[in-house]
Amino acid sequence: HAGAAIAGGTYHSAVLLADGSVCTYGDHSHGQLGRRAPERSNTCAVGTEGGAEGWVLGEVTQLAAGGMHTLALTADGHVWSWGDNQLQQCARALDQPVLLTPGRVPL
To answer: According to DSSP H, which parts of the chain are helical?
Structure first.
């Protein structure tokens, strides 16, 4: 896969691929990889429609990573977030300190 952009957090990395999908690698102790199983991994996990976890991000155009959370902007203008949310840095599910899977940020 050809990469289009990268973002790095404290112990995780995210890669935006040329096809608009996202792969994440590294530590997942705070959900920053965007997958249900809380484990470290060096395999591509977050994707577009039909991905292993079943969620639909759509075509991602921009990617950002904080210390232990990840954000994606899709071509349709939606922002998605996942990971550490203890200080509401994911801007959704304010009663949940860890968000294991991507969810749309209400704007």
So the answer is: none
